[in-house]
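lol ok so funny story. i was supposed to be doing the assay writeup but got distracted and ended up predicting the structure for this chain instead. priorities right. anyway since i did it might as well share w the group, maybe its usefull for someone
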Amino acid sequence: MDESYNDVTNSMITINTSNPSGDTLFRVTTKLHIRNLTSSTMVAKGKRIETTVLPGSSHYHCYGIICYDDEMMGDITTFPDNGDAEFLDVETTPGNDTTLFRCYFKPRDVVGNACIRYVVFAAADSTDSVYFDICVDVLTSIEEQFKASELKVYPNPASEICNIDLSSIAINAQDYQLQVYDALGKKMKSTSIPMGTESTNIDVSDMAEGMYLFVVEKNGEPMKTGKLVVSR
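and the output, tada:
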Protein backbone atom coordinates (compact mmCIF):
# COMPACT_ATOMS: atom_id res chain seq x y z
CA MET A 1 0.00 0.00 0.00
CA ASP A 2 1.14 3.57 -0.58
CA GLU A 3 1.52 6.25 2.11
CA SER A 4 -2.26 6.80 2.05
CA TYR A 5 -2.86 3.05 2.44
CA ASN A 6 -4.21 2.66 -1.10
CA ASP A 7 -3.58 -0.74 -2.65
CA VAL A 8 -0.68 -0.58 -5.14
CA THR A 9 -0.05 -4.33 -5.30
CA ASN A 10 1.54 -5.42 -8.59
CA SER A 11 1.29 -1.92 -10.05
CA MET A 12 3.52 0.99 -11.11
CA ILE A 13 4.21 4.26 -9.32
CA THR A 14 5.54 7.01 -11.62
CA ILE A 15 7.36 10.03 -10.22
CA ASN A 16 8.40 13.18 -12.10
CA THR A 17 11.16 15.15 -10.44
CA SER A 18 13.54 17.95 -11.37
CA ASN A 19 17.28 17.44 -11.07
CA PRO A 20 18.90 19.98 -8.73
CA SER A 21 22.19 20.77 -10.49
CA GLY A 22 25.24 19.74 -8.47
CA ASP A 23 23.23 18.29 -5.58
CA THR A 24 24.41 14.68 -5.45
CA LEU A 25 22.68 14.17 -2.08
CA PHE A 26 19.19 14.93 -3.43
CA ARG A 27 16.94 11.87 -3.26
CA VAL A 28 13.38 10.86 -4.12
CA THR A 29 11.68 8.96 -1.31
CA THR A 30 8.76 6.54 -1.67
CA LYS A 31 7.20 4.97 1.40
CA LEU A 32 5.02 1.87 1.15
CA HIS A 33 3.33 -0.40 3.66
CA ILE A 34 3.56 -4.18 3.35
CA ARG A 35 0.44 -5.68 4.92
CA ASN A 36 0.18 -9.18 6.32
CA LEU A 37 -3.35 -10.25 5.35
CA THR A 38 -3.27 -13.36 7.51
CA SER A 39 -3.73 -13.78 11.25
CA SER A 40 -0.37 -15.55 11.54
CA THR A 41 3.06 -13.95 11.78
CA MET A 42 4.61 -13.43 8.33
CA VAL A 43 8.32 -13.96 7.77
CA ALA A 44 9.26 -12.34 4.46
CA LYS A 45 12.14 -11.09 2.37
CA GLY A 46 12.48 -8.13 0.05
CA LYS A 47 14.61 -7.51 -3.01
CA ARG A 48 14.87 -5.07 -5.88
CA ILE A 49 15.42 -5.57 -9.60
CA GLU A 50 16.58 -2.77 -11.90
CA THR A 51 14.35 -2.90 -14.99
CA THR A 52 15.37 0.42 -16.60
CA VAL A 53 18.89 1.61 -15.78
CA LEU A 54 19.81 5.31 -15.61
CA PRO A 55 23.63 5.31 -15.62
CA GLY A 56 25.16 7.62 -13.03
CA SER A 57 22.18 7.46 -10.64
CA SER A 58 21.95 5.37 -7.49
CA HIS A 59 19.37 3.91 -5.13
CA TYR A 60 18.80 1.88 -1.98
CA HIS A 61 15.91 0.54 0.06
CA CYS A 62 14.89 -0.34 3.59
CA TYR A 63 12.47 -3.09 4.59
CA GLY A 64 11.42 -2.68 8.20
CA ILE A 65 14.59 -2.12 10.23
CA ILE A 66 16.84 -3.57 7.48
CA CYS A 67 18.53 -0.98 5.26
CA TYR A 68 20.95 -1.67 2.42
CA ASP A 69 23.84 0.33 0.97
CA ASP A 70 23.45 2.96 -1.72
CA GLU A 71 24.34 1.30 -5.06
CA MET A 72 25.05 2.84 -8.46
CA MET A 73 22.52 1.72 -11.08
CA GLY A 74 23.90 -0.97 -13.35
CA ASP A 75 26.42 -2.33 -10.83
CA ILE A 76 24.10 -4.92 -9.25
CA THR A 77 20.84 -5.34 -11.15
CA THR A 78 19.23 -7.74 -8.62
CA PHE A 79 19.83 -7.45 -4.89
CA PRO A 80 19.89 -9.36 -2.66
CA ASP A 81 19.99 -12.49 -4.78
CA ASN A 82 20.62 -16.17 -4.13
CA GLY A 83 24.14 -16.53 -2.75
CA ASP A 84 24.30 -13.03 -1.26
CA ALA A 85 24.74 -12.95 2.51
CA GLU A 86 21.93 -10.41 2.65
CA PHE A 87 19.57 -12.98 1.06
CA LEU A 88 19.25 -14.48 4.54
CA ASP A 89 17.72 -11.24 5.87
CA VAL A 90 14.06 -11.55 6.86
CA GLU A 91 11.45 -9.16 8.24
CA THR A 92 8.74 -10.35 10.59
CA THR A 93 5.24 -8.83 10.44
CA PRO A 94 2.57 -9.83 12.99
CA GLY A 95 -0.80 -11.01 11.74
CA ASN A 96 -3.02 -8.29 10.25
CA ASP A 97 -0.24 -5.71 10.65
CA THR A 98 2.01 -3.72 8.31
CA THR A 99 5.75 -3.14 7.88
CA LEU A 100 7.24 -0.04 6.29
CA PHE A 101 9.12 -0.43 2.98
CA ARG A 102 11.15 2.66 1.95
CA CYS A 103 12.65 3.24 -1.47
CA TYR A 104 15.26 5.93 -2.16
CA PHE A 105 16.45 7.12 -5.57
CA LYS A 106 19.31 9.60 -6.17
CA PRO A 107 19.57 11.23 -9.64
CA ARG A 108 23.16 12.38 -8.87
CA ASP A 109 23.02 15.21 -11.42
CA VAL A 110 21.91 13.03 -14.36
CA VAL A 111 18.61 13.11 -16.26
CA GLY A 112 16.49 10.39 -17.85
CA ASN A 113 14.32 7.46 -16.80
CA ALA A 114 14.86 4.77 -14.20
CA CYS A 115 12.59 1.90 -13.13
CA ILE A 116 13.05 -0.49 -10.24
CA ARG A 117 10.86 -3.44 -9.31
CA TYR A 118 10.63 -4.25 -5.61
CA VAL A 119 9.50 -7.75 -4.65
CA VAL A 120 8.39 -8.96 -1.24
CA PHE A 121 8.00 -12.71 -0.82
CA ALA A 122 7.45 -15.27 1.91
CA ALA A 123 10.72 -16.69 3.24
CA ALA A 124 9.29 -20.21 3.09
CA ASP A 125 7.80 -19.92 -0.39
CA SER A 126 9.22 -17.45 -2.93
CA THR A 127 6.15 -17.90 -5.18
CA ASP A 128 4.03 -16.25 -2.48
CA SER A 129 4.98 -12.73 -3.48
CA VAL A 130 3.89 -9.23 -4.45
CA TYR A 131 5.71 -6.53 -6.39
CA PHE A 132 5.53 -2.83 -7.12
CA ASP A 133 7.41 -0.88 -9.79
CA ILE A 134 8.75 2.60 -9.12
CA CYS A 135 9.68 4.61 -12.21
CA VAL A 136 11.38 7.98 -11.85
CA ASP A 137 11.49 10.48 -14.71
CA VAL A 138 14.32 12.88 -13.88
CA LEU A 139 13.77 16.16 -15.71
CA THR A 140 16.30 18.85 -16.51
CA SER A 141 14.57 21.78 -14.86
CA ILE A 142 11.64 23.04 -12.82
CA GLU A 143 10.14 24.42 -16.05
CA GLU A 144 10.24 20.99 -17.69
CA GLN A 145 8.74 19.43 -14.59
CA PHE A 146 5.87 21.94 -14.65
CA LYS A 147 5.25 21.21 -18.33
CA ALA A 148 5.08 17.48 -17.59
CA SER A 149 2.53 18.13 -14.84
CA GLU A 150 0.19 20.29 -16.95
CA LEU A 151 -3.44 19.31 -17.45
CA LYS A 152 -4.98 19.48 -20.92
CA VAL A 153 -7.94 21.86 -20.57
CA TYR A 154 -10.21 22.59 -23.56
CA PRO A 155 -11.77 24.57 -25.12
CA ASN A 156 -9.51 27.33 -23.93
CA PRO A 157 -10.79 30.06 -23.68
CA ALA A 158 -14.16 28.67 -22.57
CA SER A 159 -17.49 30.33 -21.88
CA GLU A 160 -19.77 27.52 -20.66
CA ILE A 161 -18.38 23.99 -20.38
CA CYS A 162 -14.67 23.21 -19.97
CA ASN A 163 -13.27 19.69 -20.47
CA ILE A 164 -10.31 18.34 -18.49
CA ASP A 165 -8.27 15.43 -19.84
CA LEU A 166 -7.24 13.14 -16.95
CA SER A 167 -5.87 10.28 -19.05
CA SER A 168 -2.29 11.02 -17.94
CA ILE A 169 -3.24 10.36 -14.29
CA ALA A 170 -3.97 6.92 -12.88
CA ILE A 171 -7.12 7.69 -10.85
CA ASN A 172 -6.86 4.45 -8.91
CA ALA A 173 -8.31 5.59 -5.60
CA GLN A 174 -11.20 7.63 -4.20
CA ASP A 175 -9.14 10.49 -2.73
CA TYR A 176 -8.63 12.65 -5.86
CA GLN A 177 -10.13 16.14 -6.04
CA LEU A 178 -10.38 18.72 -8.83
CA GLN A 179 -9.98 22.25 -7.51
CA VAL A 180 -10.49 25.52 -9.39
CA TYR A 181 -8.81 28.73 -8.18
CA ASP A 182 -9.06 32.30 -9.43
CA ALA A 183 -6.06 34.55 -10.08
CA LEU A 184 -5.99 35.63 -6.41
CA GLY A 185 -5.87 32.05 -5.15
CA LYS A 186 -9.49 31.89 -4.02
CA LYS A 187 -11.06 28.45 -4.42
CA MET A 188 -14.01 28.74 -6.82
CA LYS A 189 -15.04 25.11 -7.31
CA SER A 190 -14.20 21.70 -5.87
CA THR A 191 -15.33 18.25 -6.94
CA SER A 192 -14.34 14.64 -6.27
CA ILE A 193 -12.97 12.57 -9.15
CA PRO A 194 -14.42 9.03 -9.30
CA MET A 195 -11.97 6.15 -9.59
CA GLY A 196 -11.14 5.25 -13.21
CA THR A 197 -12.08 8.69 -14.60
CA GLU A 198 -10.16 9.67 -17.74
CA SER A 199 -11.94 12.96 -18.47
CA THR A 200 -14.38 15.28 -16.78
CA ASN A 201 -15.93 18.69 -17.31
CA ILE A 202 -16.70 21.81 -15.32
CA ASP A 203 -19.47 24.36 -15.88
CA VAL A 204 -17.77 27.78 -15.98
CA SER A 205 -20.85 29.74 -17.09
CA ASP A 206 -21.23 31.17 -13.57
CA MET A 207 -17.58 32.30 -13.34
CA ALA A 208 -16.43 35.81 -14.17
CA GLU A 209 -14.12 36.41 -17.11
CA GLY A 210 -10.47 35.94 -16.29
CA MET A 211 -7.67 33.43 -15.71
CA TYR A 212 -8.23 30.34 -13.55
CA LEU A 213 -6.01 27.53 -12.31
CA PHE A 214 -7.21 23.91 -12.34
CA VAL A 215 -5.48 21.56 -9.88
CA VAL A 216 -5.87 17.81 -9.47
CA GLU A 217 -5.02 16.92 -5.88
CA LYS A 218 -4.54 13.64 -4.09
CA ASN A 219 -4.97 13.87 -0.31
CA GLY A 220 -4.43 17.63 -0.62
CA GLU A 221 -1.18 17.28 -2.60
CA PRO A 222 -1.11 18.82 -6.13
CA MET A 223 -0.63 16.21 -8.87
CA LYS A 224 -1.40 18.11 -12.10
CA THR A 225 -2.26 21.70 -12.94
CA GLY A 226 -3.79 23.53 -15.90
CA LYS A 227 -4.75 27.09 -16.78
CA LEU A 228 -8.03 28.25 -18.31
CA VAL A 229 -9.27 31.58 -19.57
CA VAL A 230 -12.99 32.24 -19.17
CA SER A 231 -14.15 34.64 -21.88
CA ARG A 232 -17.50 35.62 -23.36
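Residues 142-148 form the longest helix (7 residues). The radius of gyration is 21 Å.
back to the writeup now i swear
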